[in-house]
Structure prediction request, 284 residues.
Amino acid sequence: MTQPTEIWGEHLLAALALAADGVPVLPLRPGKLPFGNCRTCVANRCSGRPSMKTPGPCTCPAPCHGWAAATTDPAVLRSPEWARAWREAAAVAYHPGGAGLTVVDLDNAAAIAWARETLPATRIVATTRGEHWLYQGAMTSANAVRDGVDVKSSMAYARWLGPGTGTMTALPDVVRDLVAKKPAAVRPAVVTMPAPTGGGTCPHRTPAFLARGIAMAEQRIAEAASAVHATVFATFLAVLSTHGRCGCLTGAHTERLFAAAQAKGESPRHCADAWANACSRLGL
Prediction:
């Protein structure tokens, strides 16, 4: 059975082709904006991840969660819940970080000139006002890292404007440094608990158990192939549920967990939010 353009729409057909190549996609409404939350999810009452502050997956079937709605599942893309969005869509977007990519968005001629002088050559996609430079590798996203330059990768979306020209190269340190130098460092919020009776050691576990637990938490975050933000939150929650009340967690432990999360593309602020939300969930 055929699915002609007049039935599914040209945007859906483009999205299905991208999804088949492993690129998570979502529809954009006029103005290059994602579709807003539905009534169930308004104000992120569902604890959907796109709030950037309220971790946890959302089971809503509609594409109303910005970058986090991006998917490669053709059944979801063709579902009735997405039909209205495709009928109203003005463009297709994708989640670069979900595809293991980083987009350096250059919005004006000066930004393009800077990129040509500073960045390694890679695949280039022409945009309405400038160019997208695509690199292989994901990282933290940030806007306005310099005049006319945004970095779009994890927890962000970019408009699909075609495959571009040139050979894509590995994400260089010069691009990572644009974001690394932008935000002020945020140190982990260490949970301060009264020391347990009988000394400052965990009363029900050995030190080796704690050391092994932290190592396993680091490994769980490092091995996350997708849903990194949700994995980080779940890992923080597991560590705090076991050791958050016994006084054995130290700043060194939390710094190790934060470092593991940031190595997967989480920003210091997102780490701090996930830690705080885990504490709140447990009543700590």
Notes: The first strand starts at residue 25 and ends at 28. The two ends are 56 Å apart (CA to CA). Residues 1-7, 49-55, 182-200 have pLDDT under 50 and may be disordered. DSSP finds ten helices and nine strands in the chain.
